[in-house]
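name: query_chain
kind: protein
chains: 1
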Amino acid sequence: MSDEAPPERRRMVRPPSGGTAAGRGLGQKLKTADKRSLSSQQWIKRQLADPYAERARAEGWRSRAAFKLSEIDDKLGLIRKGSRVIDLGAAPGGWTEVALKRGAAAVAGVDLLPIVPIPGAMLIEADFTAPGVDQQLIDALGGPPDLVLSDMAHNTIGHRKTDHMKIIALIEIAADFAIRTLKPGGAFLTKSFQGGDLGEVMGRLRAAFDEVKIVKPGASRKDSAEVFLVARDKR
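structure:
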């Protein structure tokens, strides 16, 4: 990786979270772990000890995140057969795979990172916050979505308050997009964090959806502050 600061447009990039050993280069990481930072080595150790990461590799999912969406969908029935789904922050493609496997007729995903093609999905390498990208996704689906998923995340800079504000900003952007574009009866799911200042966005969602709740699937690590915000039955 270059020592130069990343360009501003890469503000949605996040570290990998699972996937196959080949797809994520885990074998190479093990060979060169002694040359990597402490945080990288800790990530590798967590992946090797994580039963969901191992299960993802065994079952061929691109990401352990597939189990998070699957568990939430088992409980709440977000993915309907024949539905149109938009996946924001889609790389490496685990949520897109789940949506297609569970009967979505069309899935359009976007991420700053390139995504290996997935049959049945339209995947765009772009910054979702750039002008016109939202419309590209809707055009790729052939119409408004029934479900909007968001796993977008900023590159962290190590300043807790600033990082937190950026995370909340992305949640607000995804929520506004869902409110603006979803079909009546549609649903929205986004990654969030415990303790997040979500009062304003929760208020907007409650005004637009019949049900809004926070869930934490078993596939989320217990020591992680990660939770998921779900809004169902758009009015």
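note: The domain at 65-234 is CATH 3.40.50.150 (Rossmann fold).
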